[in-house]
């Protein structure tokens, strides 16, 4: 293979979005909450999903991570079709084990931190690498301490969640997600359960992660974060993408009345 060909191949691969959603639909008991969502997220991009409560943002995030199955459309993550494998041109649903394998590369941070209450911060962080990846305990601990330091908690490895503030717990949850070396991080309103004075410390960690090149999809009501950090802002309402673009476009010069009225309410 000549150098030129190799370069072209890697360029082609680099051009494939890390996440591609095509015409994704999802209903709960006949109530269609996603009505044909399209989204491309490129490597290293931060995409903020905005929209009123009930517009389908969380459901869409959960579909990407297979916490919900989709009814129509397709989602690819890093070129792999989510939830399926192809055998001789036919698509087969993945079984639970295969789904778990596909989900390993995606880190998710929830509104409620979901830490194990009877494990220390460090034990929470090393749990998945130990159990799922079979990493040696000492190695996992060293890495876990580095990750806790990265989120500003170098002094808290032995603290239990109950001894930590909400902001600290959420930062442990971020470190825990990072421990699996995800290629994609999903954040579902990571600061909305926090007291206002604790929001900044979590957003700061997320911003550093973005600066380090992590690909992130963030459901948030933090307009400042969306404006400053997002490469792409997606405004959803009623299960559809109403408007998307750069923060300066969607937040600064919204084209749709639904976006404008949402932004007015957020002020
Ligand atoms: P958002 O994140 O934008 O607030 P959601 O994705 O949480 O919106 O919810 C979209 C709609 O789907 C809401 O009407 C919600 O009640 C409904 N919904 C979400 N999850 C479920 C579920 N597991 N069962 C039934 N309805 C659900």
TrEMBL record:
- InterPro entries recorded for this chain? AAA+_ATPase (IPR003593), ABC_ATPase_HisP-typ (IPR030679), ABC_transporter-like_ATP-bd (IPR003439), ABC_transporter-like_CS (IPR017871), MetN_ABC_transporter-like (IPR050086), P-loop_NTPase (IPR027417)
**Matches recorded under SUPFAM superfamilies:** P-loop containing nucleoside triphosphate hydrolases
Enzyme class, top EC level, equals translocase
MF term (GO), any: ATP binding
Q: What is the catalytic activity of this protein?
A: a polar amino acid(out) + ATP + H2O = a polar amino acid(in) + ADP + phosphate + H(+)
This protein's UniProt keywords: ATP-binding, Nucleotide-binding, Transport
E.C. number, please? 7.4.2.1
Q: Name one Pfam family in it.
A: ABC_tran
Similarity field: Belongs to the ABC transporter superfamily.
Give the matching PANTHER family: AMINO ACID IMPORT ATP-BINDING PROTEIN, PHOSPHONATES IMPORT ATP-BINDING PROTEIN PHNC
Protein name in the entry: ABC-type polar-amino-acid transporter
